[in-house]
Amino acid sequence: MKKLFAMMLALSLVLSLAACGSSAPATEATDASAETSGNETTTAASVAETDLSAMTLDELKPLLKTVNDGKLTMVTSPDFAPYEFYALDANSKPQLAGFDIALGGYIADYLGLELEVIPMDFDGTITELGMGNADIGMAGYSPDPARENAMHFSTVYYTGGQSFICHKDNLSKFATLEDTNKPEYQIGAQLASIQADLAKKNSPDADIIELSKVTDIVAEVISGKLDGAYVETVVAQTYGKNYPDLAVALDVPYDAKGSVVGVNKNNDVLLAAVNLAVQAAIDDGSMAKFVAEANELSTGEKYEGLLENGVVPGSK
Questions:
Q1: pLDDT tens digit string along 263-302?
Q2: Which CATH superfamily includes the segment(s) 56-159+258-303?
Q3: CATH class of residue range 162-252
Q4: Which distant-in-sequence residues (6+ apart) come within 8 Å of 154 by Cβ?
């Protein structure tokens, strides 16, 4: 019995020592894991608590992340000359052009990234940006509070006005904005745009027709299918130069907030870096140059619309 008791005691001590030996590494691993997690939390908290707007580009770059490494992914709607549109090159190949496209390239270069532009309908740019599938969106955005859930707003890079357009033969019908507000009129505006809001505000009794592309709106006004439409002034003037039958009939009162870059809602560091780039483009005269060049190019021959898989619809 004594021998059995002694053997049981010895076995108990061995098991006890083995248990103690195995617990030390586990504790060390747990401590190490906690330390790593704590460092990551501290880093994230430090960024969140930092005034990013006060940081230099060199300070921001190590913190900068984009949807695709090394690239600045930009969504746009190239039916909004002179902001963004397709211009035909020397070989009659459509190329993205406009001062939004030029500014997008400037921002990418400023941040040391490669610009990747993805064309789509205007409302799609807001959706894709809101889903976090793009870094920035440039499509003549106004900083509309209704879009705050989908994007951050950069500082303003361009300020324009708003206009009402019609066929030149209908100018006499629209002496004031009140004249647009008749049930028998069909009034156009771009889908999900500031202009659509202005149409609903100023022409609530009219039949408001929202289309995806400004080019389609212009075509419908010229053909007489639309009695008139709300379009940003510089865009209206551009199409007026290209199409003599189109007239800019009225100025539309609007609290001019200007145009901004839409930035991925989850990327505060990118917002701060984009703001630095926008200010640099304004300060060094690049923005004014981009606008002048786009205005000149947009009154020449151009392809107006979206490409399908990189090919002009109807071509081979």
A1: 999 999 999 999 999 999 999 999 999 999 999 999 877 7
A2: Periplasmic binding protein-like II (3.40.190.10)
A3: alpha beta
A4: 260, 261, 262, 263, 271, 274, 275, 278
